[in-house]
């Protein structure tokens, strides 16, 4: 059975003046896939992702996300995706409950739906006692878990995670990936950037960006075989070193 | 509609949860209102007066006595010579030196005319002008009495009739400067708070990264802007209300006109200021930048508003510039409605100019806010 593509990118390019941040990248992501988007700092990962989530206009090329053209139907794209960014992007000066209510509200969820969802979410994360505490009081790892759950409030088809585990301890990182797996099993497509190569091993497929181009794209197993190494870390180093 | 409600709810929660901001929003402006209204006065009082009496006669003493009893002058010192007096003025110890020449009384009695020398510290030109008027008035009074004394008794009937002007001061009969200043200062405070808060609000979300999160949601630009503006509109109105109460209770400022009209105009006015604030927010990346730009406009707006200096006395080009100053219109409307009891048709020009301004600024703010870069 052919897997339905939820992200299709063809020759997507972004230039800032003379600098080409993303240079004709093409790839597809299937439904329910965990797609790792790797690359050194400045390789163009975040820029590429920003085009896919509709907050940065492509210079040229095409991209459809959840069946919608990111250029023409940006707002439709936004309804179908969840996004959690590198830096922390919920409100520290609001309580956990306030954050859920606010984001549920601006995604157009009904009041009863928000109540149900937040109850479930808080239960799942085991934060019953913390629900009415300011989010700023939580440790970073917990905040990231809340942010991930909030990004899923409106049942998006795809979730984009931009270095979701940066600065988080190994145990929380593992728990975080368990959450990602649970969602992927439910059929949500996960598009994730990371700098942790052990996390790259968890992905179904991995693309590695080097200087704005996709230098490699395959399953972690195939990539390791192809480059004849034991770990994704070595794959990454080989590719990244080639450019120097 | 619901989306807007959620944004408003969130903004209010953030405002009321911010323990540092709340006093800044409410307590600070009201302290300013009380302090500034009492301090910012155009009246020149307690003028540091000194004199050199070279004559030392009944006449010269009588003249000096007139200054001593005047509430406008504080007689600081008598100097033996002009040289000593000048050095005291240089040090800023005295502001006015009156020199009575020797033979003052004799010349007055014999020649019916004499001179007085007055030196005024004119570093503050406006104050010096006022001081000059006060001095002239006292000398004039003294002059009239002296004339009566000097006239032979039987000639007094032939004294020319003095023409006295009896001024009628409308709308502020007692020339109480507070009546004039309090509405103006209130305008300034409402403007300052709403401009700074709105100017920094969206930039703040840019700084902490939450704006990006908002931009990936399907929220509409107008929903976001309205949701952001509304709480500050309410804050501005509340601030005006508290200010008006203080004006009434503390300063006993009359409220001749319709309060409803004043509020209706204020709503439109605050929309202008919020539009400017959002506009600044869109084009800056940090709260610091936003703050400086807001200050830039605030200083120009205040100094060119007619609050402290009359617009009529500005050069022509500056008067043209004030056409774009929203504070000018608000100051005018406040004074017109509160003190003169102006009705809606009296403030049409201000009202429609402000309305046009509000539409323009908010249009620009919505256009300038980009969800996509």
Question: Can you give me a brief rundown of this structure?
Answer:
The complex is a heterodimer of chains A (244) and B (373). Chain A is α/β, with parallel strands linked by helices and 244 residues long. Chain A has helices at residues 45-52, 74-80, 96-106, 111-125, 140-151, 170-185, 197-202, 220-227, 232-242, and strands at 5-16, 19-30, 34-39, 60-65, 68-69, 81-84, 158-162, 189-193, 205-210, 213-218.
The CATH superfamily title of chain A: P-loop containing nucleotide triphosphate hydrolases
Helix content of chain A: 25-40%
For this structure, what is the CATH class of chain A? Alpha Beta
Mean pLDDT of chain A, nearest integer?
Answer: 90
Shape of chain B: elongated
Our count of helices of chain B gives 14
| Distance linking N and C termini of chain A | 42 Å
Q: What would you call the structural class of chain B?
A: mainly alpha
The fraction of residues in strands of chain A falls at 25-35%
**Quaternary status:** heterodimer
Mean pLDDT of chain B, nearest integer?
A: 85
> Regions of chain A with pLDDT < 50 over 5+ consecutive residues?
none
Most extensive interface, chain pair and sizes: A-B, 31 and 25 residues
Termini separation of chain B: 26 Å
- Catalogue the unreliable spans of chain B: none
Radius of gyration of chain A: 18 Å
Largest sheet of chain A: 6 strands, mixed
> What's the total number of strands of chain A?
10
Q: If you had to describe this structure to a student in words, what would you say it looks like?
A:
- The complex is a heterodimer of chains A (244) and B (373).
- By secondary structure, chain A is α/β, with parallel strands linked by helices.
- Chain A is 39% helix and 26% strand.
- Chain A has a single domain, classed as P-loop containing nucleotide triphosphate hydrolases (Rossmann fold, 3-Layer(aba) Sandwich), CATH 3.40.50.
- Chain A has 9 helices and 10 strands.
- In chain A, the strands form 2 sheets. Chain A has a 6-stranded mixed sheet, sandwiched between helices.
- The longest helix of chain A has 16 residues, at 170-185.
- The N and C termini of chain A lie far apart (42 Å).
- The mean pLDDT of chain A is 90.
- In chain B, strand 1 (47-53), helix 3 and strand 2 form a beta-alpha-beta unit.
- In chain B, helix 2 (21-39) packs across helix 9, helix 7 packs parallel to helix 10 and helix 13 runs antiparallel to helix 14.
- The two termini of chain B are 26 Å apart.
- Chain B has 2 domains: 47-158, abc type-2 transporter like fold; 177-368, no CATH class.
- By secondary structure, chain B is mostly helical.
- Chain B has helices spanning 2-17, 21-39, 58-69, 82-90, 104-111, 125-150, 177-208, 210-215, 221-249, 259-282, 287-303, 316-322, 326-340, 348-368; strands at 47-53, 73-78, 96-100, 117-120.
- Chain A binds chain B through residues 50, 53-57, 74-76, 78-79, 81, 83, 85, 87-94, 98, 101-103, 105-108, 134, and chain B through 2-3, 5-7, 9-10, 13-14, 17-18, 208-210, 212-219, 371-373.
